[in-house]
């Protein structure tokens, strides 16, 4: 209900004295609009054009002398270097690259006090093979690392070792094969 009353009042205010307002707008536009003031440089050009009529004619007409001089000018784009602008984000090298050893590209330069994953795996495996020769102190000096950090690395990380079972398992497998063969031979004899 309230929205309809609002619409009616708005419509009546909009339409009030419409004719008089329209006539006022038309009267304003009957007079010619005044041009905006010109810039000082354009005023000077217009003044020169009014004074020298030949200048305006010569600027419009074709000057044969200048035109002949342009014919002598040769632009050879072949001598210009070729511009190869690559779109950003697109790979230029489309060859397939091998995956890095540890799944990411190792840094070329390592800061002092830091080591790469490859170096860490290397000194962990060296320590596991000979802990006396490759102690935490010697590793810390060699790689310029903090000795406590190296001790913690050697304590909590180990190189993967391959466990190969002893030859007893082969003999067990052979015994099982013999048993199966003997059972198969007995079954064949019974048939």
UniProtKB/TrEMBL annotation:
Kindly list the GO CC terms recorded for this protein: mitochondrion
Enumerate the Gene Ontology biological process terms: mitochondrial respiratory chain complex I assembly
State the name under which the record lists this protein.
DgyrCDS1287
Annotated segments matching region Disordered: 167-191
Q: Which organism is it from?
A: Dimorphilus gyrociliatus
Q: Which residues form a coiled coil?
A: none
| One Pfam family from the record | UPF0240
Composition bias, Basic and acidic residues: 167-177
């Amino acid at each position: 209900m309230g929205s309809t009353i609002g619409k009616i009042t708005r419509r009546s205010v909009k339409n009030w004295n419409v004719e008089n307002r329209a006539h006022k707008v038309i009267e304003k536009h009957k007079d010619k609009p005044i041009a905006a003031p010109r810039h000082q440089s354009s005023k000077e050009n217009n003044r020169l054009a009014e004074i020298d009529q030949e200048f305006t004619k010569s600027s419009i007409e074709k000057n044969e002398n200048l035109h002949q001089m342009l014919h002598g000018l040769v632009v050879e784009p072949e001598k210009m270097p070729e511009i190869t602008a690559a779109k950003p984000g697109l790979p230029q090298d489309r060859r397939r690259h091998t995956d890095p050893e540890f799944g990411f590209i190792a840094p070329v330069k390592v800061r002092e006090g830091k080591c790469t994953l490859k170096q860490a795996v290397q000194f962990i495996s060296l320590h596991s093979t000979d802990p006396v020769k490759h102690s935490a102190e010697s590793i810390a000096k060699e790689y310029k690392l903090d000795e406590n950090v190296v001790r913690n690395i050697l304590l909590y990380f180990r190189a993967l070792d391959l466990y190969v079972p002893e030859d007893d398992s082969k003999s067990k497998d052979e015994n099982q094969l013999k048993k199966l063969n003997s059972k198969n031979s007995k079954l064949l004899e019974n048939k």
